[in-house]
Amino acid sequence: MKRYLLLLAVFILLAPTQGCAKKKAAKHIIGFYNLENLFDTVHDDGKNDYEYLPDGANEWTAEKYATKLQNMARVIADMKEDNGMWHTVLGLAEIENRHVLEDLVKEPAIAAANYRIVQIEGPDRRGIDCALLYDPSRMKVVETESLPFDFNTRIPITTYNKKEQEDFRTRDILMVHGLIDGEHFAFYVCHFPSRRGDKGQDVRCRAAEIAYSHVQKMQKKYPGIKCIVMGDMNDNPQDESLSVYLHGCRNIKEAGQEDFFNPFWEMLDNGIGSLFYRGDPNIFDCILVSQNLTKGKGLRIAKQGKYYGTVYSKPYMTQQSGQYKGQPHRTFSNGKFISGYSDHYPTFIELKK
After folding, report:
1. Which of the four, 19, 95, 109, 146, has the lowest number of CB atoms within 10 Å?
2. Helices marked H in 111-186 — which ranges?
3. CATH superfamily, region 29-352
């Protein structure tokens, strides 16, 4: 009898723990982080990476590179501590090559995450690419694809003449198709063409068109697939590229079958920013989810307090004084290395069943 009561007590004690473990397993953190020029110190053939060499304009030494890696890892590790788990998926922008990612995932602060890497070399003249880190215990990669930019569009391109179009090079969009909790997901990691002299709204619309067209292709091939488009869009949620060509919606209830919900639109309206320009907040670092991640069965986007998304910042990631007080603590300021982190804050969403 005593033995029976002892076994019953052990079962009762263990049952809540097992229940919590199952509940916890149904939560996933999906994020994006522009690492602001994560370059190594070695020249890559055919790339204009000369400023990030020891004898380049930034005097990019092994010591500075090591500091940059440690800083990026610190942010990722702190997000894990606050979320209670590593990212299942973390999209990245402004990384030079696979080598810098291999160095990053080996950093002591995040080595325990056992991240795997998806990165495909693209045509950007400086050599920066998009990439994706993922937890192999939580997602299985099925296929990957690099989507190049082109001008084969019905959108009138007015800001680039024919010669400029021929010379134009920008980042590819990285598509990663994977299985999470048995569900099909397609992740699109983007870094849309830059705002140089307020130029290029039309090419960012074209980049959004390329991503959306591929989403439709994947939805046709894999009915029910859940699609997430993330990245540094160089546009805000209300801008044409995201609201029109990527079919982004401000409110979750507005998202129809052909639309995406952009949780960062409302946040920007309320003065939250992932980066700043002339003191004004912007959220270029968006994560948009297809309608079947807003309702229905399986994993769905969940609120994290007031909002469905998070712009993640800590005091050490933020300038505490001077001209740029309150803005992201970047790597360089006025040409001087200041041991900062990035000129963008990372963003993430949470998926739950």
Report:
1. 19
2. 162-167
3. Endonuclease/exonuclease/phosphatase (3.60.10.10)
